[in-house]
Amino acid sequence: MHTLAQLQAGELHGVTRLQLAEGLTHFPAEIFSLADSLEILDLSNNALSELPDDLHRLHRLKVIFCSNNRFRQLPACLGQCAELEMIGFKSNRIETVPAEALPVQTRWLILTDNLIAALPERIGQLHRLQKLMLAGNCLTELPGSLSQCHQLQLLRISANRLPQFPDVVLDLPQLSWLAFSGNPFCAERQPHDAFPQVAADDLYHHEVLGQGASGVIRRASWRHNPHGCSEQVAIKVFKGDVTSDGYPLDELEACLSIGQHPNMVTPLARVTGELQEALVMELIPADYLNLGQPPSLASCTRDVFTAGQSFDIATISGFVEQMESVVAHLRQCGISHGDLYAHNVLVNPAGHLLFGDLGAASRYHHLVDYQRQGIERMEQRALHCFIEDMLGLCVEQDRHTELYRQLAARLG
Ligand SMILES: Nc1ncnc2c1ncn2[C@@H]1O[C@H](COP(=O)(O)OP(=O)(O)OP(=O)(O)O)[C@@H](O)[C@H]1O
């Protein structure tokens, strides 16, 4: 994080990345003094509603974040920025997306949590678009031209007003991660009356174990254990706000719909009588570690892995087998995960895998055959990316084994 004072004093000369969050109501003109170096501009968490028309003078600008501001329109000046590839305007009040605001070279467009009712057909000209985040808007349809975005791999359209499943997404040859829950065409959430319920004061809440976009997870133990669950459990208290994957309540709905599988964390009980929804689940032992890290700005739609991380081919084959088994289970439940990534996978030293994060899950059992098949093809593509990533982590001496060849052959 930088300060306006540093910028005005000329202390930031030569920086490639600038981050200012000081309640700004106007774009500070001093930013132009960084034009020869600035590549990433983060003006999130201010009170901006406009950007200067001559923003293109920042001629190296590749990434702009303006989340949590007061924009009502996506600024048209973005379209003039010759190098701009990533645009993030989450949680503004954007109603209008002018065609000219979208640079043709855009790879990653984030418009989550705005008031957008329609997107321009221009979107079809964004031939490099890989990631498109539209959850939490007022969309009633998607532009037909979206079918031209042949590079699109990840799409979020949850929590909108789509009256029917947008068939246009079925034509996207690379689409692998789709989330669409929380639209009028979606199946209604179920009461899940048969699912075990507990009262909030049945539990002691302990330390925070982690924090996802949709809620906070703590260790918990029982004051009163009506269903005879394990003594130590985890509790996720869901936040109310829409996330980039959709509504937290749709995540909860998916958790309550998946039953049990050895490679998923078992949901144990729902907490009733509280203002916020909460779910009690099995506590993941501390020796489980994340298999991958979420994509970087550069990798965009693909996970990144820790330098030096490697596995023998038998372990990798075990990961793939377990992952396939969960995907098949979810398919039987009529749920697409929508975020099948190694960063949502935990593994222990014995090679056991746990697949988590149902934030982007969508129920699709009620859709027609060709739509269901299209959705299953997408999840299959995500599985291929997972296999490809795992093979990339294979130790050198196992790269000529039969097992490696068999897995690689499945990628086609
Ligand atoms: N059952 C559990 N037992 C122990 N720790 C857990 C459990 N569930 C989640 N956690 C911890 O909490 C973190 C957040 O989990 P959660 O599934 O909500 O979000 P995420 O998938 O990591 O993030 P996001 O939803 O933002 O993509 C996990 O990375 C993990 O460290």
What's the SSE pattern?
Answer: HEEEEEEEEEEEEHEEEHEEEEHH
> How are the strands ordered across the major sheet?
1-2-3-4-5-6-7-8
Gap between N and C termini: 45 Å
Count of DSSP-assigned helices: 5
- Beta-strand segment tally: 19
Give the fraction of residues assigned to helices.
10-25%
Mean pLDDT: 96
CA-based gyration radius: 23 Å
- Unreliable stretches (pLDDT < 50, length at least 5) are none
Largest sheet: 8 strands, parallel
The percent range for strand residues is 15-25%
Keywords: ATP-binding, Kinase, Leucine-rich repeat, Nucleotide-binding, Repeat, Transferase
GO molecular function: kinase activity
Domain Protein kinase: 203-412
Binding site for ATP: 236
Structure in words:
The protein is of the alpha/beta class and 412 residues long. 16% of the residues lie in helices and 18% in strands. It has helices spanning 4-8, 248-257, 313-332, 369-392, 402-409; strands at 17-19, 40-42, 63-65, 86-88, 108-110, 131-133, 154-156, 177-179, 197-199, 203-212, 215-222, 232-238, 267-272, 278-282, 289-290, 335-336, 345-347, 353-355, 362-363. It has an 8-stranded parallel sheet. A hairpin with a 2-residue loop joins strand 10 (203-212) and strand 11. The model has no long low-confidence stretch (mean pLDDT 96). Adenosine-5'-triphosphate binds at residues 209-215, 217, 234, 236, 265, 281-284, 344, 356-357, 359. Residues 203-412 form the Protein kinase domain. Keywords: ATP-binding, Kinase, Leucine-rich repeat, Nucleotide-binding, Repeat, Transferase.
